[in-house]
Every structure is written in structure tokens, then in C-alpha cells.
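Input chain follows. Return C-alpha cells only.
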Amino acid sequence: MPTRQRQWTWHARAGRLKAALESRTVYEDVLSYCRAELLDGNYFHAVFEATKGVAERIRTLSGLNGDGADFVNKALVVCSPSWC
């Protein structure tokens, strides 16, 4: 495929992807974790990178260390003294 055609195809795909993600109101932070993988069409690794990035953001904001469901539950739980 000629270079000019490749550039047009890449820009068209990037534009469609951007519009689709904006319509789903995906946070810019999440996109920053996986933009390169999305633009390459590597959706498995895009999800993987986004998941790693979100986990790191939760660690930063919560001050907790860990990974997995128990970590997320602990970081995001809203406790009331009557039931915690």
C-alpha cells in the first residue's frame, strides 16, 4: 500500500476510534494508558495496559498496595460504621 494511502487509512481509523471512545465517555487517563495499542489495533494489549494503568491510579489515590479484586474492593468500598 502506498505511503499516502497508509496515512489516510491510519488517520481514518484513528478518527473513528476517537469518536467511538468519546461517545462512550472514556476517561482521557484511561486512553493515555493504552492509546498506542488501540491505534495499532491490538485490542487485547490495549485492555491489558488500561487495566494496569487503572490499577496504578487506584494505588496512587488510595495509598494501598495490591492487585486483583480484593485490592479494588478494599480501595473502593464505602463504609458506614454500622456495617463495616
